[in-house]
Amino acid sequence: MNINLNVSLWPDSIMDRSGNNAGCPSLTPYLLKDEQSPVMIVCPGGGYGMRAEHEGEPVARWLNRIGVSAVVLNYRVAPYRHPIPMNDALRAIRLVRHHADDWGIDATRVGILGFSAGGHLASTVGTHYELGNPCKEDPIDRESGRPDVMVLCYPVISMGAYTHEGSRSCLLGDRQNDQGMIELLSNEKQITDHTPPTFLWHTVDDAAVPVENVIMFAEGLRRNSIPFDLHLFESGEHGLGLADNHNEAGLWPTLCEMWLRRRRFII
């Protein structure tokens, strides 16, 4: 079932009406009829300045085909700065868990999937998440913001030497050279033994986001004994999305599905 109507992240807030933030912040759900299905929150890329359409709805449709409900996160981008995109993503996870019974999903199988800068957003949530606070007045804030799995596709991970300059500029604005912020949002440095299991893929000759981003993140996961799959493809331009027309990288959706089944995310 495709609701295909935006669900506001904060019911009392006013959504933007123009530019790259029109309709934000909100979710666009693509829900299965199956009861207790897993769900993936999809974060399109776009350098924190836009959200790429081919990394949104088509990805949600693919997830539906493999038995996963999906919601596309319409998170706010520039001129909004950190922590606003992160807060949108955390709220999305909590909102989905809060509506688990209404939407026919399993609140214990909530993942997040991101491309490029959306991968940075997903990995930020996975390394800076907040657990639910039972004392909060808003029942949604009582839900955990920790994703159960992460899927990171040619992600921006670091704000340091191997970053994507455009993403750092859009996310941090006049704080982009603040070493404290760079350290905080270089997510390879924020991994703990509670970071969720992660599936990663990248192309080695990506000219926009260096492959070192996934390599550093995988090294951090390994040091903390976090389960992960890492797939590197020899060549391919940045922003492939589902990579339907790429003979090698086009394998990633199948590899990801196999990993999600092995993790018992898809049962």
Keywords:
18% strand, 8 helices, 8-stranded mixed beta sheet, 267 residues
In short:
The protein has 267 residues and is α/β, with parallel strands linked by helices. The chain has helices spanning 57-65, 84-98, 100-103, 117-128, 165-172, 179-184, 212-223, 252-262; strands at 7-8, 26-30, 37-43, 69-74, 105-115, 149-153, 198-203, 228-233.
Number of strands: 8
Runs in which pLDDT lies below 50 for 5 or more consecutive residues are none
Q: How do the helices and strands follow one another from N- to C-terminus?
A: EEEHEHHEHEHHEHEH
Strand order of the largest sheet: 1-2-4-3-5-6-7-8
- The first-to-last residue Cα distance is 19 Å
Mean pLDDT over the residues: 95
Level of helix content?
25-40%
- Percent of residues in beta strands? 15-25%
